[in-house]
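Q: what sequence does this backbone want?
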């Protein structure tokens, strides 16, 4: 091997790459997870809609559905509801931030002691077009699996600028359809 070969890009095995290959095209064995992540529903309470409008109206949170949007919700969550492990294909963000508002919302679903360090958020993509949706799923790491503890169909737990600008909460605070009804329809479809 001469000095020119040393300067050429090499893969993980030390083989010289041809000019058409890139080091970035090579998969790193160190970035591959050693075990597949496991996802499951924390409990049936997770499928029930809640709101804290009475106790903390300033939190502006609800995950009740608008009857007109139920078909879209079913469409977006269908594949995941049948197999929560499909969440592993989504974008998982381990940094949800920490504040009293989030703590109050998470406490609607989490009854045991918990830490923000164990919380992650997953974006749900539409199963047909692979487009991002407003739907977010919140997870808590327990032992070696993620437990789905909160489903946020309106993206109101951590609202984006778009949700705030478009008054998503105000438009949906009167929604009355519990998510559990949509999940019952999904169960009937399977």
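A:
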């Amino acid at each position: 091997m001469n000095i020119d070969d040393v300067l050429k890009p090499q893969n993980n095995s030390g083989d010289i790459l041809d000019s058409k290959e890139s080091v970035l095209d090579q998969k790193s064995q160190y970035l591959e997870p050693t075990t597949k992540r496991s996802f499951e529903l924390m409990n049936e309470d997770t499928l029930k809609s809640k709101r804290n409008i009475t106790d903390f109206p300033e939190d502006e949170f609800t995950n009740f559905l608008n009857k007109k949007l139920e078909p879209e919700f079913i469409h977006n969550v269908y594949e995941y509801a049948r197999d929560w492990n499909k969440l592993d294909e989504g974008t998982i963000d381990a940094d949800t931030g920490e504040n009293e508002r989030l703590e109050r919302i998470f406490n609607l679903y989490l009854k045991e002691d918990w830490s923000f360090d164990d919380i992650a958020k997953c974006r749900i993509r539409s199963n047909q077009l692979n487009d991002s949706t407003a739907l977010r799923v919140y997870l808590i790491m327990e032992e070696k699996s993620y437990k789905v503890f909160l489903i946020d169909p309106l993206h109101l737990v951590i609202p984006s600028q778009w949700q705030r600008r478009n008054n998503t909460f105000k438009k949906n605070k009167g929604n009355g359809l519990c998510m559990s009804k949509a999940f019952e329809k999904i169960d009937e479809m399977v």
